[in-house]
Design goal:
The chain is an alpha/beta fold and 362 residues long.
């Protein structure tokens, strides 16, 4: 059987300086990484949808925490100390899809390639390396570079070291011959091997359990955030409403990435559509911060998750109306009413009649 991981740290951000913890917690908002998740894993997933500016803040906060940047090719691996009774695991998992312009999607789209995440974690569940392939299966050189990084330039605040044992996922075994020369050159008592079929089955079972837990947590947290957003709408607080709906959307994206059941997936998609529409409403509330362009984008995104959600088309038309694009608003409403499930929707037809009357009066 594979070595057992030691108990994971209670605080997944523990070990980081206070400045870095503050930045990460601010960007994570009210969401908390799971206490039994690998260090950094939930934080990385939660932050995946943040803006480039936010990610730059994270990198700035983390800079200088680990070992100085090294040249992986000239680095002397023979001088790295082996940590006794330690082990690392090298695993690969599916991570959505990547488009021709490096656009990420949780769902398959024409022209997109499967994306994979490669991680190397240690016995305390700390991630030493977390890399994505950017579309397609990893090459042997990609894997070799990841191993070198885990030794010489791991994710901060982890320091340079070697494990007593490295276990390579069985699904990566086709690359073993290419990795062997480097791995065999590392100093004793370091050793390595490919995981056994029994170990692979145990890992798969553990991943499934984590996915079940993650989906349930994502749905529960999203529903709480959605309710808070609704309260903020009722009290005319735009900023709080946007914040809570954004948190809900990110929780749902997190949940849908963890292999939910068909029933759970349907529920997640329905909630994503509702939360995007509700955030659209928040953007169109009167007062400072009114932003019909953002409202239109949210209403359009809502239909990506539910093509027959009448309120999404209604909000698209409302946003276009605020942008003085009555023609497009009418086109959106006519298109929505042309859908069989929406053909008799009173809200859409009433608004279309209102806009048509305005056009006639003009």
């Amino acid at each position: 059987m594979p070595p057992r991981r030691k108990g994971a740290r209670k605080d997944p951000l523990a070990g980081l300086p206070s400045d870095a913890q503050n930045v990460l917690q601010e960007l994570l908002g009210s969401r908390q990484p799971r206490s039994n998740a690998p260090i950094g894993s939930d934080a990385v997933r939660m932050l995946a949808n943040k803006s480039p500016e936010d990610l730059e803040r994270i990198m700035s906060a983390l800079s200088g925490l680990g070992d100085p940047k090294v040249d992986l090719e000239s680095f002397d691996y023979s001088k790295v100390k082996v940590k006794k009774n330690s082990f690392w695991v090298m695993q690969m998992s599916a991570d959505g899809f990547v488009g021709p312009k490096e656009q990420f999607s949780h769902e398959y789209k024409a022209g997109y390639k499967p994306n994979f995440q490669l991680i190397i974690y240690d016995e305390s569940s700390s991630f030493r390396v977390c890399e994505t392939t950017g579309g397609g299966l990893p090459s042997s050189s990609f894997l070799l570079t990841a191993i070198k990084k885990s030794i010489a330039s791991p994710m901060p605040p982890i320091r340079q070291s070697l494990p007593q044992l490295l276990i390579i996922a069985i699904k990566l075994s086709p690359h073993v011959d290419a990795l062997r020369p480097f791995l065999d050159s590392l100093p004793a008592p370091f050793s390595w091997r490919v995981e056994t079929p029994e170990e692979a089955a145990e890992v798969a079972s553990g991943v499934h359990e984590k996915n079940v837990e993650g989906v349930a947590l994502g749905l529960s947290t999203a529903q709480t955030e959605k309710a808070l957003g609704n309260q903020a709408i009722a009290s005319k607080n735009r900023s709080k409403a946007v914040k809570h709906y954004t948190e809900a959307i990110e929780c749902l994206l997190d949940a849908i990435s963890q292999n939910p059941t068909k029933e759970e997936k349907t529920k997640i998609e329905e909630l994503l559509s509702v939360c995007h529409v509700n955030r659209s409403v928040a953007w169109m509330m009167e007062g400072s911060g009114l932003d019909p362009k953002k409202a239109l984008k949210d209403a359009e995104d809502a239909t990506l998750w539910n093509e027959d959600y009448a309120k999404a088309y209604y909000r698209q038309a409302k946003a276009c109306h605020l942008l003085d694009d009555r023609a497009r608003a009418i086109e959106i409403l006519e298109g929505a009413l042309g859908r069989p499930k929406l053909a008799k929707d009173k809200g859409l037809s009433d608004f279309l009649q209102e806009l048509t009357s305005e056009t006639s009066d003009a």
